[in-house]
Amino acid sequence: MKVKLGKKDLGEYIFDFLYEDKIVIELKQGEIFSKNNINQIYAYLKAKKLKLGLLINFTKKGIKFKRIVNLY
Predict the structure, then answer these.
(1) What is the residue extent of each domain of the chain?
(2) Beta strands 62-69 and 52-59: pairing type?
(3) What is the C-alpha to C-alpha distance for residues 1 and 6, in angstroms, rounded to an integer?
(4) How far apart are CA 53 and CA 70, in angstroms?
(5) What's the rounded mean pLDDT across residues 54-70?
(6) Where does residue 37 rank: exposed (0-12), middle (13-18), buried (19+ CB within 10 A)?
(7) What average pLDDT does the segment 56-62 reach?
(8) What gap in Å lies between CA 67 and CA 35, rounded to an integer?
(9) Of 6, 25, 58, 63, which is most buried with the most CB atoms under 10 A?
(10) What SS3 state is found at 47?
(11) pTM of the predicted model, to two decimals?
């Protein structure tokens, strides 16, 4: 997905999954939810004007997930 600010091209975002054109799903590996990964999902949500994202981390003990809501 290409992202623009006005007429300026800001680059291209590639997220892991988009469920029913409503929910961004991003898959990661690790025990913690990093600030960079959370900010990445916020950027996707803002660019697509969506409300909900899921950050899913695969850990040694199983799966952790975090709901991320775009309030803007």
Answers:
(1) 15-69
(2) antiparallel
(3) 16
(4) 8
(5) 96
(6) middle
(7) 96
(8) 14
(9) 25
(10) helix
(11) 0.81
